[in-house]
Every structure is written in structure tokens, then in C-alpha cells.
Amino acid sequence: MKHLPSPEDYFTANVQRLGRANQTGWAIGLCPFHDDHNPSLSVNLESGAFACHACGAKGSGVISFHMRLTGLSYRDAARELEKGIYAY
Ligand SMILES: [Zn+2]
User: Fold this and answer.
1) Does the pTM of the predicted model rise above 0.85?
2) Ligand 1 centroid – CA 23 distance (Å)
3) How far is the CA of 58 from the centre of ligand 1 (A)?
4) What is the pLDDT of residues 3-51, one digit of tens each?
5) 43 Cα–ligand 1 center, Å
6) Structural domains of the chain ordered from first start
7) 21 DSSP β-pair partners
């Protein structure tokens, strides 16, 4: 696989009101997968894992986040990320 954006760059571009990461890399921001007003989404800026305690969205990396965000297949989501297309 070619170069993917770092989880930090990816989540900074796609998660609004993203807070600072704690010591284990987790930060909280607004979830783009439901109508979120109080930040419910935890993202890990090191591993790319994410989990929303409000709507249940979760995954293990930026590709699965991108698939969910865009509706693309794994292959197409990975291809966009490799091209550096990831800010929505
Ligand atoms: Zn959510």
C-alpha cells in the first residue's frame, strides 16, 4: 500500500471541534456520522481507530472512517487517501 495520510492529519481535516489528544492518542470531536452537537466521537490520532458513543460508528483506521464518510468501497477509499484526497 502506498502512503496514507497520518491519522492526525486525516482527523484534523474531517472532525470538527477536535480536541487535544490524551496520552494514549485519543481525542474527541464532533461525529460526522450523526447530528452531533456535543462531541461524541473519539478518534485515535496515532492508530486511526475511532468510536462514537452516541451512534455506534466505529472502526480501526482512517480507511474505514473514509469509507463511512464517503460511501466508497475499501479499494476506492484507499485510492483517494493515497492521492491525498481526504478533506471533506
Ligand atoms: Zn456518531
Assistant:
1) yes
2) 23
3) 9
4) 899 999 999 999 999 999 999 999 999 999 999 999 999 999 999 999 9
5) 11
6) 7-82 (3.90.580.10)
7) none
